[in-house]
Specification:
With 286 residues, the protein is of the alpha/beta class. It has 11 helices and 11 strands. Helix 1 links the parallel strand 3 and strand 4. NADP nicotinamide-adenine-dinucleotide phosphate binds next to helix 9 and helix 10.
């Protein structure tokens, strides 16, 4: 397994996203735990979650609890695993994703995530999505306080534009560790944010790197270049896509979601695929 860094923390070049294990359409928890264990077996040491990966207000933090359980029941050493969670969204039910960027909410959410994950400090805490009703500086100020208080070891942001990335970096005094934005073959409009992260040396975690839960299976049929390279190499279109993302910049660390051991294993193998410059150019041009 190839590795990358988030500030000075080394993680696997491919992470694991926990959202499909806990939102609408989720499987039985046993299958999700098996998927997490398969990812760990494959050398994955970055797991992305959020307090909002659940169905409604009766099971807030479903995914954080699942990950805590999977780490506790894993037979091997998990001391090097970085769990990256998020706060700032709420899910009252009925499929809604509400936003609360108030400092009070973020601090309380962080305390709750600490309890669910069963840790003294969260390895990477990311603000989930800017709240148009709260000045960004106030929300990120709270993130900075969580760092200062030692409740989180690293701070990240998500769904941020270049101006917000620069603002967060300034407010955090140069301590911004990561940016998590949507990026995939079908959705490339976060390229300016990716390029800015590369320039600033901030990790860029593409979310829905395979096109999202409902479209991930269609990668090969929707993107001819992905299908061609996959056929040439004898690997899945999903693996080719993740290897292409890795080739875009050393700051990129994809976090493909999975809820099955097979998919978690297949995605993890993308870290070692190594595309040629010609293959990368074909995929980037498509
Ligand atoms: N910050 C944000 O606002 C935000 C928003 C969305 C997502 N995220 C994060 O980003 C992560 C990834 O995004 P996502 O889960 O929405 O979408 P995704 O990673 O593009 O796709 C996930 C789906 O891909 C399938 N899959 C994974 N690896 C595969 C493989 N090698 N071959 C075939 N199928 C494969 C999985 O199927 P199975 O379920 O059958 O395994 C899963 O349901 C999330 O889990 C979450 O942690 C963050």
């Amino acid at each position: 397994m190839q590795h990358r860094t988030i500030r000075s923390t080394t993680v696997s070049a491919i992470g694991l996203g926990g959202m499909p294990m806990s939102i609408e359409g989720r499987p039985e928890p046993e299958r999700s735990v098996a998927a997490i264990h398969a990812a760990l077996d494959a050398g994955v040491t970055l797991i992305d979650t959020a307090d909002a990966y659940h169905l409604d207000s009766s099971d807030v933090g479903h995914n954080e609890l699942l990950i805590a359980e999977a780490l506790a029941t894993y037979g091997g050493d998990v001391s090097g695993v970085l769990v990256a969670t998020k706060g700032g969204h709420t899910r009252p039910g009925g499929g809604a994703w509400d936003i609360d960027g108030s400092p009070e909410h973020l601090k309380a959410a962080c305390d709750d995530s600490l309890k669910r994950l069963g840790v003294e400090a969260i390895g990477l805490y990311q603000h989930h999505r800017p709240d148009p009703d709260v000045p960004y500086a106030e929300t990120i100020g709270a993130l900075g306080e969580l760092l200062d208080d030692g409740k989180i070891r690293m701070a990240g942001i998500s769904n941020a534009d270049p101006g917000q990335i620069r603002e967060a970096q300034t407010i955090l005094g140069g301590r911004l560790a990561s940016v998590q934005n949507q990026f995939s073959p079908a959705f490339r409009s976060s390229k300016p944010e990716l390029d800015l992260c590369a320039e600033m040396g901030v990790a860029f975690l593409p979310w829905s790197p395979l096109g999202g839960i409902s479209d991930a299976a269609e990668l090969g049929s929707r993107h001819a270049a992905v299908a061609e390279v996959a056929a040439d190499r004898g690997v899945s279109p999903q693996q080719v896509t993740l290897a292409w993302l890795l080739a875009l910049s050393p700051v990129v660390i994809p976090i493909p979601g999975a809820s099955r051991p097979e998919t978690a294993r297949d995605s993890a193998a993308a870290a070692d695929l190594g595309l040629t410059p010609d293959e990368v150019a074909r995929l980037s041009a498509a």
